[in-house]
């Protein structure tokens, strides 16, 4: 079994070869599947990251949430404590680039919401197993956040991000569903 860093590198290499048309095709199919899920339809508040390629595109998911009257909240990292603070996003101009080319909400333009208000959390990651365990970018931000988050969780993945196994550590927590272009994988 490979360790997390080896898997991170392999998946990044594979994803870097995905062409723009396929990236768009797969992202659209994943989004359409997500919108069919009950967890999406019944959630009033959606927690989601702002995607950076080659992550599955979330801009179209944010737009759809707005169009259907949902509240969108996006995370701001608190690096000192490795914590996430979710803040409401009502327009893309409320984002700023903070580090690694990731976009975060501008604090003065957005308001914080508490985790209990988030009905559906879309959890980012680089690689996933069928059991719902994930490997992220190594910050441990979501692993920490998920320890006391009790709402629904899903992750979005290209099939190239599905891996057979990795050494699950004590802090790793599974997501409830993984949505790929062709399937919805229930993990529980
Ligand atoms: N689009 C997107 N936004 C996101 C995430 C994501 O996965 N995707 N995150 C998902 O969590 C958070 C940011 N994730 C981060 C992950 C790693 C590091 C970081 O500092 N990495 C160091 C090593 C960290 C360590 O091991 O201590 C590095 O790469 O040098 C920072 C933020 C919130 N926003
Ligand atoms: N709940 C937690 N409490 C304390 N430390 C944690 C917790 N979760 C993860 N960590 C630590 O954070 C570091 C990064 O964890 P890991 O490699 O699993 O991150 P990741 O899953 O890739 O990142 P993310 O959760 O941000 O997507 C590890 O050193 C891990 O031990």
Structural features, described:
With about 190 residues, the protein is α/β, with parallel strands linked by helices. It has a single domain (about 5-185), classed as 3-Layer(aba) Sandwich (Rossmann fold), CATH 3.40.50. About 25% of the residues lie in helices and about 25% in strands. A 7-stranded mixed sheet has the order 3-2-1-6-9-10-11. A two-stranded antiparallel sheet has the order 4-5. Strand 4 and strand 5 (about 100-105) form a beta hairpin. The structure holds ligand FFO and adenosine-5'-triphosphate (ATP). The site of adenosine-5'-triphosphate (ATP) has 15 residues, from helix 5.
Second-tier CATH architecture: 3-Layer(aba) Sandwich
Provide the gyration radius in Å: 16 Å
Query: What value does the average pLDDT take?
Result: 96
Which of globular, elongated, flat, extended, rod-shaped describes the shape? globular
Strand order of the largest sheet: 3-2-1-6-9-10-11
Order of helix and strand elements from N to C terminus: HHHEHEEEEEEEHEEE
